[in-house]
Design goal:
109 residues, Jelly Rolls, 4-stranded antiparallel sheet, 10 strands, mainly beta
Amino acid sequence: MPLEIITGLPEVRLTTTSATDITPVVPTGETWVLTARLCNRGGSDVSVTLEITDSANATLARVLSGYVVPGNSTLDFSPVRLRAGTKLRATASASNAIDVSIAAGVRQF
């Protein structure tokens, strides 16, 4: 099966306390998020939930649930497997405090 290296995905700031798309829906095959980072830009602790959802935003699995990212710190995580028709979404307990960046991924189709 062909592989495609994914780089340069935009950083996503969680501007609300509602769930926010971190990746687009995987169109075919599967995508592995190899390196991702949550950055808490504020001085207070923030709880973060990362979920794998379908295209209609129904939760299929939780990667993190209420994980506390301390103020002015980062959390690196990997890998996360996304299958066709799924995407990664994040929710934070505070607005404009968390940035999510994905440094690399691999798409197999």
